Amino acid sequence: MAEFRLAFLFGFLFLFTFDVFADSNKFQWKELKPQQQRILEPLAEHWDAMELARKKKWLGVAQRYPGMSSQEQQRIQSQMQGWHALTGEQRQQVRERYRKMEQLPLEKRQEIKQRWQQYEQSSEALRQKSNSKRLIEAVVG
User: Fold this and answer.
1) Which distant-in-sequence residues (6+ apart) come within 8 Å of 29 by Cβ?
2) C or N: which end of the chain has fewer Cβ atoms within 10 Å?
């Protein structure tokens, strides 16, 4: 009986491991449709190493992309290019800041959002002089 349980456990773990491995190989860059590749081009270099959840998120963005206004499309492309330009360490720092911000009280998050909108609406010259990192750190503390 113990041998059966052990064999069952190993079989189950093997199948689970196989599923995880299979999922990590889903949605490889070369398997994407040409339109998806064109939209997601800034992410191409890191696509195959990306987590499955992130791939699904970006594929959802690519699906909605044609229905977006040109301004929204430019914003998405800018975000992807900006993310692509970051080093791995910088990406980790961004993720940590995001997690910290998610833990802030609602009113503090709204204040940050409002300040960010004001920053985005400011002139290009002001944006170049301003440092968004300092802005967020000043609010978050």
Assistant:
1) 37, 44, 47, 48
2) N
Residues 82, 91, 69, 121: what is their CA dihedral angle, to the nearest 10 degrees?
-70
| Domain annotation covers residue 44 | yes
How big is the CA angle at 19 (ends 40 and 44), to the nearest 5 degrees?
15
Query: Residues 119-130: pLDDT tens digits?
Result: 877 766 565 555
Question: CB neighbours of 140 closer than 8 A, spacing ≥ 6?
Answer: 97, 100, 101, 104, 108, 112
pTM of the shown model: 0.56
The end-to-end CA distance of the chain, in Å, is 59
39, two tokens: 């939209």
Number of folded domains that form the chain: 2
Give dist(CA 130, CA 135) in Å, integer. Answer: 8
